[in-house]
Amino acid sequence: MEVRFLSRAPSPRNGFELDNFELFFGSVDAPRYCFNGRRGSILFGGDCRKTGLCEKIHKVVEAGAGTGILQPEAMVEENLTVSHAAYDSKIEGNIIFTRVDAAINWMRKNSLWPMPMGLACCAIELMATASSRFDISRFGAEVMRFSPRQADVMIVAGTVTYKMALAVKRIWDQMPEPKWCIAMGACASSGGMYRSYAVLQGIDRLIPVDVYISGCPPRPEALIEGLLKLQDKIDEEESLMAQKKDPVHQPINA
Amino acid sequence: MSLAEDIRAIGIQDSVEFRGETTVTVGLSRLKQTLEKFAELGYELLLDISSVDHMGETPRFEMVYELATLDDSKHVRVKARVAEDVEVPSAVSIWKTANWHEREVYDMMGIKFKGHPQMERILMWEGFPHFPLRKDFPLAGKESEMPDVAFSGVAPLEGGPFVTSPGSTRESGEPRAKGES
């Protein structure tokens, strides 16, 4: 496998900019498949060698990278199709383009392991969501982990009392990056109806929240909607850049 | 024996009956003795211990004990006024269930119990500096900080606290901020 990183540039609305091609599996001369920059779309077609597409890519690479644009018309000529298909065996020997970010994000968002932080009645809805009737395994999030070390997303389901708050924070701190947080229901989002001496007025006072779900408690459909929103958010992340950065520790804003 | 006969047997002269519930009020010095006598007369079930804050009156606090017989045929409420910084004799030696009730009273109201085996907070964390059910404690709470244990803050109360409206229909009586309902 040959991996080749090219320079990055904003991609135009139409056409596939070759400088977004970042990965070549196989060799550059005869890639088995590559990843390109259009998020979500996977380009595949006839054998690269036959279509001569890899030569075009290679020429652009040789020329110094970053400027060649393959127009959609050219793709029609080459008998290529654009599809939202996932990997399947038909693609073997063909070509896929995507960005490293898109590939990483695609893998991450479809395998979110939740840390079920069930603290009140929302936890019952969370359990219902995980069970057969609603079944979040359809969205790749069925692997509830009670060890924070193995979890990706903390679902704070319920009223966070001050007595529990630092325990939630500790579990959050024990989760490895990258990690996300869903505040499920009114209590976790804002303290809900508990405007009280005993209740933390929203878990976002302690840990960063990615998705808030309204409801008291929210229906399982609402939790699934929140999960899909989180998946969309993960899709937009710049995972590669984030990996090169040190994790930023936000000060606690209690 | 009837409830009235029990009360007379204990040596309490007056009791108050309201909507079928009987309440006797004793001085703090006679409280332990009264509870013991009720227990001997078959009031084996301690349903609840609670406390009331009559802020502005002296003595300030009031202890309330709910007793019942095991067959549930008789039910009596025993009350005793308690001044601030006065210890109440613990009822743990009579009813074991008094243990947690008294800890809750201490936690929420700050009334201490003499002879209690473990006089610690039960709901709030050890080191929390306030007693939340006292009348001078604001509903929104107060700030406190115990590093690595817990902290507390002040809740926003714009629109008033979330309360149910008694006597209304189920729909309009649902918990809402006072100003918004």
The major beta sheet of chain A can be summarized as:
4 strands, parallel
Largest sheet geometry of chain B: 5 strands, mixed
Given as residue ranges, the uncertain stretches of chain B (5+ residues, pLDDT < 50) are none
User: How far is the first residue's CA from the last residue's CA of chain B?
Assistant: 51 Å
* CATH structural class of the largest domain in chain A: Alpha Beta
CATH topology of the largest domain in chain A: Rossmann fold
Q: How many domains is the backbone of chain B divided into?
A: 2
Query: Main interface pair?
Result: A-B, 16 and 24 residues
The chain-level structural class of chain A is: alpha/beta
Order of strands, widest sheet of chain B: 1-2-5-4-3
**Topology-level CATH name of the largest domain in chain B:** Beta Polymerase, domain 2
Parts with pLDDT < 50 across at least 5 consecutive residues of chain A: 1-28, 30-51, 60-88
Q: Could you describe the 3D structure shown?
A:
The complex is a heterodimer of chains A (254) and B (181). Chain A has 9 helices and 10 strands. The radius of gyration of chain A is 22 Å and the shape is globular. Chain A is 31% helix and 15% strand. By secondary structure, chain A is α/β, with parallel strands linked by helices. In chain A, α4 (100-109) packs antiparallel against α8 (220-235) and α5 crosses α8. The model of chain A is unreliable at 1-28, 30-51 and 60-88 (pLDDT under 50). Chain A has a 4-stranded parallel beta sheet. Chain A has a two-stranded antiparallel sheet with strand order 1-5. Chain B is an alpha+beta fold. Chain B folds into 2 domains: 3-133, NADH:ubiquinone oxidoreductase Nqo5 subunit (Beta Polymerase, domain 2, 2-Layer Sandwich), CATH 3.30.460.80; 138-181, no CATH class. Helices cover 18% and strands 27% of the residues of chain B. In chain B, the strands form 4 sheets. Chain B has a 5-stranded mixed beta sheet with strand order 1-2-5-4-3. In chain B, strands 6-7 form a two-stranded parallel sheet. A two-stranded antiparallel ribbon of chain B has the order 8-9. Chain B is globular. The mean pLDDT of chain B is 89. The interface between A and B is medium-sized, with 16 and 24 residues.
